[in-house]
Each structure stands twice: as structure tokens, then as C-alpha cells.
Amino acid sequence: MDRAQKEAVVGELDQIFTDSGVIVVAHYTGLTVAEMTDLRLRMNDAGATVRVAKNRLAKIALSGKPFEEMGDLLKGQAVLAYSEDPVAAAKVAQAFSKENDKLVILGGTMGGTVLDPAGVKAVAAMPSREEVLASIAACLTAPASDIAGAVGAPASNIAGILSTLEEQAA
User: Fold this and answer.
1) Which domain holds residue 75?
2) Using CA atoms, how far apart are residues 39 and 97, in angstroms rounded to an integer?
3) Rounded to an integer, what distance in angstroms lies between the CA atom of residue 170 and that of residue 167?
4) For 43-70, what is each residue's pLDDT tens digit?
5) Which residues on neighbouring strands pair with residue 83, listed in sequence order?
6) Are residues 99 and 85 in the same domain?
7) Which of 4, 90, 103, 136 is the right S-S partner for 97, CB 3.0 to 4.6 Å?
8) What is the rounded distance in angstroms from the CA atom of residue 132 to the CA atom of residue 84?
9) Pair 81, 69 in one domain
10) Residues 150, 145: Cα–Cα separation, whole Å
């Protein structure tokens, strides 16, 4: 890899560190190609990405960032899992590490805060952006459906009474 390629990789990693809502660092020693492909597919389905990069280049891209100390996690065969959604990458990485003990979560970062493995687990337990939006939408629409039911109830009661009177008259 020549200097220009290294600079391109550092620029790409810098963009990842700037734009991601969550970044998870894990060791992947011993994962087979099939297992790594499975991890990549799961991440892709969740809107997250997996990136393997040279630790030295990642540390260069981290310099000057508020979570620069995350560079201490970059030792050995480290993989970066990241997503714009603040919990997607953490959820997938946590679930995959439960199924496959070869993926060992070392920590990560979320919103400028460096996380230890327990912190990544806590982030993975949080609801995703879509789940939060769905619960907010449900809260907003519930009063409207209650009002509609209350307004419609007297009309259905009157219709029932009229139907009963009609049956009695016949």
C-alpha cells in the first residue's frame, strides 16, 4: 500500500469516525470467511457496516477526535462495526458475539463517549431509532382514536336503539 492509498484510507476512516452514531471495536481472530460474511450481511440488513482497517491508520484518523482514547482498543485483529443509527451496529455485534465466541467486543464509542464492553451491551439493549419513532407515533395517534371512538359511540347507540324499535314495530 503506497502513501496515496494510505491517505485515502485515513480519509475514509476519518469520515466514518465523524458520521457514525455508534462504532463498535471487536477482535475477530479465528472467524472463518463464511462467519465474517454472515456478520457483514447481518450488519448490512440492519443498516450498519463492518470495516477492517490497519490499526495504525485508524489511530491516525482518530487523532484530534473527542474519543481519541478509543485508539487504545485497536490492537491485534480488530474490526470496526459502525452505523448512523446510534444502536444498530451495537445490537448486531452483541447478538453475533453471543452466537459466536470468536467475535470479542472490546468497546467502542457513541456520541463522543468511549464505551467499554458493558457500555456496548447497554447500547445494544436500547430501542432502535425506528422503535422509538413507532412508540412516539403510537402515543400521538392514541388520543385521536379515543376521541373518534367517543364521538362515534353515541351514533352507534342510537342506531342500535332504532334497529330494536324497528324490529318491535314489525
Assistant:
1) 3-126
2) 10
3) 5
4) 999 999 999 989 899 999 888 888 888 8
5) 22, 48
6) yes
7) 103
8) 15
9) yes
10) 9
